[in-house]
Amino acid sequence: MFWGILSKIYNICSKKNHISTIIKPKFNLELKNNNLKIVSYNIDGLFAHYNHINYVNICRYLRYLFTEKNVDIICLQEVWEISIYNMIKDKLSDLNLYYAQPPTQQKYYVGENSGLLTISKYPITYTDFQKYEYLNWTCNMTCKGFQYLQINVAGKNINIINTHLQCSFNKLKYLYQNNAMDQMNIILNYLKEQNIENVLILGDLNLDTIYMINYLKQHDELNIPYEFKNNITFAKQSEQLDYFIDYNNLLNNKKIRYKIMNNIYYSDHYPIMLTINNI
């Protein structure tokens, strides 16, 4: 907790970006793989849980994903602290990666930013961020929202939404799943208003399986392209909170593979990976 408080003070004092930023590498990688591997991972970067060694190990794990598992894109949630963001960039600095980060200003100066970060081997050509205006309980101390990205994969733009929706606190009987579903509706309205045809929506959606099933029943344009009804991605409460969702058949006629990594890797969520063949 002591180191978390120091990290929070550093976060408060650090310079903030007021717009979304893309950091480009010195040169682009020559990528010849026809498959696209995408990971979504909530790294539990809250200052109250801060453990420096954990985040060093998470950085090593991210490096392992890029170099040994040939992952192409990693979308992170809960990169709350600037010190964690800087550590990730430093530990991966030699890999020539793209970084996209939403605005980093904090809620009420002492709260949190969006916590979102996307890292890619492929060029990130555009990013936008939309903040959720209505948040409950501890989420009201954050700038949660969704990050829209265009990533150029083999000459074709792939649209991705990386997000972290409203949390619920089931043990305390603070149930905010309806708020999370309202935020999903905000994403869908944005996609329609911007005439974005198809997207992969991913992240920590904070909707356990039964809520997700009911939400999908109301939206024919959404589909989870893998068997998900018995999965667990948040081990602490044996819930599934993290997903990949196909909007308007982005993955139509594509062969995909889904995997939940078999270790928490110093967070409280399992990383999840989607492999899209012949992208």
The pLDDT mean sits at: 89
Largest sheet: 7 strands, mixed
Low-confidence stretches: 1-11
Total discrete domains: 1
Helix % is 10-25%
CATH architecture: 4-Layer Sandwich
Strand adjacency order, main sheet: 1-4-5-3-2-13-12
Q: What percentage of amino acids are in beta strands?
A: 25-35%
What would you call the shape?
globular
The span between the termini is 44 Å
CATH homologous superfamily? Answer: Endonuclease/exonuclease/phosphatase
Order of helices and strands: HEEHEHEEEEEHEHEEEE
Number of strands: 13
Radius of gyration: 18 Å
CATH class, anyone?
Alpha Beta
Q: Helical element count? A: 5
Describe the structure.
- This protein is α+β, with helices and mostly antiparallel strands and 279 residues long.
- It contains 5 helices and 13 strands.
- The strands form 2 sheets. The chain has a 7-stranded mixed β-sheet with strand order 1-4-5-3-2-13-12, with no helix packed on it. A 6-stranded mixed β-sheet has the order 6-7-8-9-11-10, with helices on one face.
- Helix 2 runs parallel beside helix 3 (82-91).
- It is globular, with a radius of gyration of 18 Å.
- The termini are far apart.
